[in-house]
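comment on this one:
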Amino acid sequence: MSANSRRTSTTTQRKNPPMCQHQPACPTADSADREAARPTAHHPEQGWSLLCNGVLLFEDTGELLPDGQIIAPHRPLTAGQVTTAA
């Protein structure tokens, strides 16, 4: 067996099976409603949850998408936080 025949091809892309097995399927990580996916791991003591679409959702409403993209916190303002101009 030659050295060339023992080589295997490698790829930089990972082939992960889809995490969501629900019917109907949860929204994908690139959907606008991605936060509606079901949690697969929930750690309130650490302030995060892993959703079945691969999104890490933080208690401050920030997100980390599976591709590494960061979504800044987008907490809605409550009446006590709204200021009006005089």
Summary: The chain has a mean pLDDT of 78. The radius of gyration is 20 Å. The longest helix spans residues 3-6. The first strand starts at residue 39 and ends at 43.
